[in-house]
Design brief:
Helix content of chain C: 25-40%
Number of helices of chain C: 12
Distance between the termini of chain C: 32 Å
Oligomer: heterotrimer
Number of strands of chain C: 13
Structural class of chain C: alpha/beta
Largest interface: A-C, 46 and 41 residues
CATH superfamily of the largest domain in chain A: P-loop containing nucleotide triphosphate hydrolases
Strand order of the largest sheet of chain A: 6-7-8-3-9-10-12-11
CATH architecture of the largest domain in chain A: 3-Layer(aba) Sandwich
Shape of chain C: globular
Strand order of the largest sheet of chain C: 7-8-9-4-10-11-13-12
CATH class of the largest domain in chain A: Alpha Beta
Radius of gyration of chain C: 21 Å
Number of helices of chain A: 11
CATH architecture of one domain in chain C: 3-Layer(aba) Sandwich
Number of strands of chain A: 12
Largest sheet of chain C: 8 strands, mixed
Order of helices and strands of chain C: EEHEEHEEHEHHHHEHEHEEHHHEE
Distance between the termini of chain A: 21 Å
Order of helices and strands of chain A: EEEHEEHEHHHHEHEHEEHHHEE
Radius of gyration of chain A: 20 Å
CATH class of one domain in chain C: Alpha Beta
Strand content of chain C: 15-25%
Number of domains of chain A: 2
CATH topology of one domain in chain C: Rossmann fold
CATH superfamily of one domain in chain C: P-loop containing nucleotide triphosphate hydrolases
Helix content of chain A: 25-40%
Chains: A alpha/beta (about 325), B mainly alpha (about 280), C alpha/beta (about 350)
Chain lengths: ~325, ~280, ~350
Amino acid sequence: MEEILSIRNLKTYYFTRDGVVRAVDNVSLSINRGELLGLVGESGSGKSSLGLSIVRLIPPPGRIVDGEITFRGMNLLKLPEKELRNIRGKHIGMIFQDPLTSLDPLRKIGDQLVETIIVHTRVNEEEAKEIALRALERVGIAPDRFDDYPHQLSGGMRQRVMIAMATMLNPDLLIADEPTTALDVIVQSRIMDLLSDLKKSMKMAILLITHDLALVIERSDRVAVMYAGELCEVGPSEVISQEPLHPYTQLLLESIPDIEKPRTKLVYIPGNPPDMRNPPTGCRFWPRCPKVMDVCKRISPRSLELDDRFVRCHLYNGGLECGR
Amino acid sequence: MYTFRPILVKLVPKVRLSILGWAGAGMVALTVFLAIFAPLLTPYDPTKAVGPSLQPPCWEYPLGTNKIGQDMWSRIVYGARTILIVVLLSTVISMLIGVPLGLISGYAGGLLDRILSMIMDAIYAFPSLILAIAMAAALGPGILNTAISIAIVYVPTYFRMVRGQTLSIKEQLYVEAARAIGANHTTILISYIFPNVISIITVVFTLSVADVVLTEAALSFFGLSVPAPTPDWGFDLKAGHPYLLSGYWWLVTFPGLMIMILAVGFTFIGESVAEYFQAREVRT
Amino acid sequence: MIGLLDVTYTMGGWSVVDEILRLIDVRKWFPVQKSFLERLLAKERLFIKAVDGVNLTVWRGETLALVGESGCGKTTLGRLIVRLIDPTSGRIIFNGMDITNLQGEELRRLRRRMQIIFQDPYASLNPRMTIGEQVAHPLKIHELAQGSELRDIVMKALEQVGLTPPEKFYNAYPRELSGGQRQRVAIARSIVLKPELVVADEPVSMIDVSLRASILDLMLTLKQELNLTYIFITHDLAVAKYIADRIAVMYLGKIVEHGPSELIFENPLHPYTKALLSSIPIPRPLKEPRKVELKGEVPNPINPPPGCRFHPRCPIAGEICRREEPELREIEKDHYVACFYAICS
């Protein structure tokens, strides 16, 4: 499997008046060509900041403090702005949660697509329109909607336009930050079907950032779980869903109501996510962990990599309990 | 131990000022200091002729004397009182009229809102100075009358801002929640809408008070403010300017300087406060 | 008075229960704002038919989940029930009393008996009142307690919703609390008057998944302790399954199916319900893309399709569906469906 994006020791901090928020703290992650990696986390996990860091769109007072992000052999964090702009939109596409705020309400969607194409390629307007129409067709939007304004489309359709815009230039990687959260479950299902199709047909990797663990396990090839700015566990979705190693992953799985199973007591994780300006010392999950040990409170766990899995937890530091 | 929260503490929002804001606060504080400690700072009675006419600044009369022989320093110091009282009074009157009307108009909507808004827009459309002058001429001299004249000019500003804020707060979920627990309109206005409007009142206040200072100075320049012997910077400005070309610079410089310091001071504070609240909006 | 009393099965077992709420052909049409010119030229007024003919009975002591996607009218219906908005037509009967047209003082007194919890814990609390003041406020408004007695009631309510130690929260402001904590405050505020009926409008959809169960369990506990009846509005069928005795599915302003929770999940009869159920993500990897056989988008509520509102998207729509609107019929015990082709399998 070929790696197309490699994140090493990424640190993204927000320097607010009330303190430093260590939103992404020493995270290393890689994405392979054509795979769907689901990045799961709850509020305060830093997952969105991770996505934004890749394309260097972290808003002030945030800043990427350390780390390396390698894409196509280049370190994105050291790239001059001009070359980065070339990559954004053409080689790395991004879609966000709310398409209403990502699309210009005053311009027709067709025109917005065409403009993006022209900015990134050398084609003329005729050819750009061709590409745009094909892109819209690919996401299931009829060509007669080319001249519509965003408000004339439903939420699901707007998100499809966003997907069209982000994928029409055949990027290697699509970063999708909560693309379906604002959508109804039926529409969500269709959008996810679309993304899977595109992934296959274009050999495009997708980084799916979401809080919905069920969605991620259903659709992703691999799952990465983040908590309070740190990676807890990464692995193939089948393996993670059946044999979660990290206590947070286990609890998270148990807290998802599964409609195919009979009604059982739902689990919840006691406590609250930590204040990111002052996270707990040691492992950040220890105040809420049912398997907490003394060492967890003092020392941050080392990562353990095994085949295609990765986990950061003192329970597995010995390397013997993995059961693989 | 139900902690008693003084209403004042609740009403005065906690604000962080920038450097500019502190500079402005300093300027205003200087004026307030002069006003409060006036008797201790001045050796002379500002309303009486105490020395030779048109004396330049010297040891006895630090800022010189004017045509009548009054000590300029004393007049400046006591003038601070005059202007601050008028400014404070007119601001209070503006608020007392503009804020409740804005709340009610924004909350009630409908015909009442339309009519009040039209009236306020009409007043607002008037050039502020002309309106103030007209009112002052009609009401006559005196501190209260001057305050009222100025107040009328700024009522529409408080009205519009409060009304606008009320309109948006009215749609907030917590106001709907208040209705859901059975609050009547009065309770909603007082406990749910008004406390969330205070921040905008503060902004309006800090941004407009500089203007009020200048309006007062202008009115007194035209002799429409407080009656004659009362020390007043604008009046001194008017009284002194005929002599400027003859070289009697101290008659005009110091009152003018003080007016500027006070107005600029308030402006700096106003900008800083407005910036603070804007930043706060973004943060949420 | 048919159906005022019934024998039904709730979480506790068989019991004779009475109706706490009955909705009769309730409609809420929102006029579409048009520009002056449009009003001048157009002949007819347009309406957003958010709720368009809902008939529903809610039994005392049950948890009824009102399920549907955005635009189906469930939120509007919730607000109609607690009379935060006035129905355009139809009747709302609460405890045998017609509350459809209550206004003013009577309406405010009604508030003591029915309450609502909103979806957004960040927006439903007054940012300028302390937690203690907000939870105390309903009692103050209805003059039910004051002074130290009031304080005691509030402290007890804070404890009941899990905000301990209550003293710490009593003087805090909403901005100092997390989303989950704020929602608990909202719950405390809603129970402090000891209402009979609580409408919960998506109370956990803005809460982290790992914390939802704690809020849901809290609601269930309170229901036992205070003999509450819940109308639980949600778009998340999985949450509905966890908390509801009965489920009513809404589409484009009408109820298309309702029945006991288990029946709805084991044997969904309406094609829309089936599509909904099959779209919910389950935490197991999908072998191939899940093809939901539902074409098109939710139509505009200004102009619902003729006949059965669902027919343009329905995989089994027939001729009759385009012409006539199906009524809710009881297909199996307590399980009602509005579909011409629904049969008991």
